[in-house]
Amino acid sequence: MKKSFIKYSMCFLFISFSSCKKFIDLLPIDQANSENSFKTPADANLAVMGIYNALQSNSYAEDMALLNELISDNASIQPSRQGDAGKGDYRELELFQLTDQNNFFQNRWSASYKGIAGANQLLNKIEQIPFTDAALKNQYIGEAEFLRAVFYFDLVRYFGGVPLSLTQVENTADAFAFKRSTEQEIYQAIISDLSEASKVLPVNYTASNVGRVTQGAAKALLAKVYLTNNKADLALPILRELTKAPYTYILMPTYAACFDTDNNAESIFEIQYTSIVPLEGNPYPNFFLTNDNTAGRDIYGASYLGVTGQGVCLPTFELFNSYEANDSRRTYTLLKYFSKAEAVDLYVCYKYRGIPTSAYNSEDNITLLRYADVLLMIAEGINESGKAPTAEAYDALDAVRKRAGLPVVTRNLNYESFKLKLLDERRWEFAFENQRWFDLKRFNKAIDILTAKGYNIKPFHLLYPVPRKEVLISQGNITQNPGY
Predict the structure, then answer these.
(1) Using H for helix, E for strand and C for coil, what is the string for 275-312?
(2) Using 50, 70 and 90 to split pLDDT, how confident is the model at 86?
(3) I want to staple 142 with a disulfide (CB 3.0 to 4.6 A). Which of 189, 201, 294, 436 is the partner?
(4) Is 42 contained in some domain?
(5) Considering the entire predicted model, what is its pTM?
(6) Domain total of the chain
């Protein structure tokens, strides 16, 4: 079902994206292709595929895990790899010794702005294309707006205020003129994009278009943006809409069922992968392994064709021990593995089980939004808006817990206790779905929780350093975050 949707992404790269090496990658294409590649609705569709492609790269997926899981209490580096000369960038994250030369910050910055550039290009050029189907045109616009919002939402949570570009940049001089906008300005742009997208995107798709952005995805992400900005009163009505018709989201009957089938009834938005095209697959089944030569075959069987894991993002023992007894999510997510390199038991993330057909090339999608998130955000929004949980909040939380085989929560928690309970629940529900760092920040608990566990986190670490290259080549227009 997803293959027809995905296969165009590689085609678009050959006709559109160029490799802009300077500044913030806001010049996505050469001028000839810019003028000649937007003549028909099919051209517009290819352009949209190019924006999706910015989410699909191996490095984008790996960076998500490192910047959201490794830096948190969920993951650590394999002991024997901690001193490896080539693992300095990983150790910086694990030890909170962050520098502006860390490649993972640069990778995420550049990849995000390439996606933004693609969205700006589509939104700029689509008006010159003659459409006979207005709904299709609006769908493409909504997809571009949603994806641009995704990129900016990541950037603002990682770096704070960043350069804000909402139109196509035509020349290098204009690119160098950008300065950092405020966080508030970035969030205003995100909210505007998601609000507009939610008006024009379809509720669902059929056949080969399953996996494209839907109206529900725009609304779910908008609600999360509002919660991040302490606007629970605006998030709650949106979240409640998603529990009723025309939306048909449900909790899958088991936790495993959330991941056994891509684009299932719980899924709201996933990054789509296929292993048919080299480097278009999900790298996680390789990436999350230990650095043992036989780990892949030991875990996935003789048909495993991937490479040795890196051992740079392994679940912590503390994460394993934090789960409540009989939680089915721990059984599915974490696997104990005897590392021959260490001669000890370690844990690996076992949530992504699609066997790679080549190195870093699995069929598994990566979920960005699913219905369990909506329910837990409803509970969060109620608790934040009223400074106490209600029956509705408990019901939403308990629905997720029951699916995991856990008892309901005793209904005597105050605001703070319920908040901490939700944060734990989100940790267990979304482990290695790249939400932990953002959750710790949104709940305003990153400093307290990580400090109590021995991490050397300081307040300025809540924002990552702006990549040094971006500061240096901006000719003074981009400043560094405090503390770096």
Answers:
(1) CCCCCCCECHHHHCCCCCCCHHHHHHCCCCCCCCCCCC
(2) low
(3) 201
(4) yes
(5) 0.93
(6) 3
